[in-house]
Amino acid sequence: MSEIKPNESAPATTEDNGEEKDWAAAKAFFDNLKTHKPRPPKPRYAVTIAVSSRTLFNMVAERKIYEEEGVEKYVAYQLENENEPLKPGAAFPFVKALMNVNSRLRKLYPDSEELFDIVLMTNNHAQVGVRLINSINHYDLTIERFCMTGGQSPIGYLKAYMTNLYLSKDSEKVGEAIEEGIAAATMFMPKTEMQLSDTQLRVAFDGDAVLFSDESEIIVKKHGLDTFFEHEKEV
Amino acid sequence: MVSTIQNTDVKQKDADHAVVVAITSHAAFESGADDGDAVYREGVAFPLLQALQKVNERLLEENPAESLLFDVILITTDSQQQQQSSRVISSTRHYGLEVSRFCFSSEEDFIESLQKNNVKLFLTTDTNEVTQASQTGVVSVLLDQQTAVCSSEQLRVMFCGDAVIRPDTGPMPLTRQAAQSFSTQLGEMRQKFGMFDSPLSFILVTSHGGRESCRGALQMLRSRGVSVDEAYCLAGAPRGPMLSLVQPHFLLRDGYSSLEE
């Protein structure tokens, strides 16, 4: 099967041997679990999607406390409500659809590591992590990898977790991720109720900029549609 | 033969409440082949020493009468450095290091220094010393080149959240008890600071297990008074890139076992 991350060269160093040992230990750990949870795929071959806590779950009320009363009150509130599962956020249906794709892939290719891997990437304090994990358990999401930086920007960690796509509510963070060369998108809750499938992953490609050069897109943004049509005539 | 000399430049700590940390002079200073009588160069433990000092500074800022402080002592086991005991002392003073006592002993009886001084954490660059000290139940950490690039502004202590799969490879029960009480003392120190801008940070890394191991570890540490700040759960993902970002000063191994099932 082909490698999804072609920039990773073939393992040969002692660091890679350590990597292999960690992987083997994790494999043994998950294979021995009585709960028969599917074990996470090998990051080298997986498509890794990092989601922030606020896109995975609806944390609007909690965010308000953080902004109005400060971080200490925010963390205290999260601790008090630790056993109360959070409500789904904007990326929730997306994550469920990814899980469905994974289970179908696992049935068709039981030995493949080419699966989606979902990582929770947040600058939340680790104490808030208990509520996040409790919520993940409540919905039985297959998320086994976390990065909780306790206040620092998570952007530096995206590469460390071999992230292919980063989803966040914070467009600044998304911009920073893109600067680091990692595909990223700003997720938001649609204002009107949208029926999003959580069994089928539906991907739309922007024909104007994605498949073809974004030269035209830039012209529209800078000068408006008239200039765009003139440019198209010249090209 | 063990001899102890007080550093008169530094205020002695309250023996009943201070947390004694012993560092070998080998770890604190680089001794070159032909340094003469000059001051020693900084060793790999330098940023760590400075971070310990930073914690003390901030603890005293919060409460000038604070007695729960780090009490750093310098242990010299190397016979060559012993002959230059005055150089060890003058180097310490030159850098303004907050070392309260100097202990000079041989390789055979440095353990006596650790016991006499009620050492809670022993830091060295020598693997034999780590093994020997561990066997007597002292929490011992092997420092290396990685330690040299750590922060000098914040003491970063790492805990490992993995299930102990094969208990016989874990640390000795004596050290386990000692590591637990040491981590509780660290937890107490941490409580004196806010969520952010703390000179002390606790990091949890789960290498093999998944979210249940991570959660179990967070809760177990919490019950011991250790409120973890940063958590990285890898579930088999490579550790290297993450560790080079996290840069802990040391890992506290206490054979913590996660109750996954």
UniProtKB/TrEMBL annotation, chain A:
Q: Which residues form the signal peptide?
A: none
Specify where the region named Disordered lies, as residue ranges: 1-21
Report one GO cellular component: cytosol
Protein name listed in UniProt: Cytosolic 5'-nucleotidase 1A
Question: What is the top-level taxon of the source organism?
Answer: Eukaryota
Q: Which InterPro entries match?
A: 5-nucleotidase
What GO MF terms are annotated? 5'-nucleotidase activity; magnesium ion binding; nucleotide binding
GO biological process per UniProt: adenosine metabolic process; nucleotide metabolic process
In Pfam terms, one family for this protein is 5-nucleotidase
Give the classification, highest ranks.
Eukaryota, Metazoa, Chordata, Craniata, Vertebrata
TrEMBL record, chain B:
GO biological process, alphabetically ordered: adenosine metabolic process; nucleotide metabolic process
- GO molecular function terms listed in the Swiss-Prot or TrEMBL record: 5'-nucleotidase activity; magnesium ion binding; nucleotide binding
How is this protein named in the record?
Answer: Cytosolic 5'-nucleotidase 1A
Species name: Larimichthys crocea (Large yellow croaker)
Q: Which GO terms describe its cellular component?
A: cytosol
Task: Cite the PANTHER family for this sequence.
Answer: CYTOSOLIC 5'-NUCLEOTIDASE 1 FAMILY MEMBER, CYTOSOLIC 5'-NUCLEOTIDASE 1A
Superkingdom of this protein's organism: Eukaryota
Tell me which InterPro entries the record gives.
Answer: 5-nucleotidase (IPR010394)
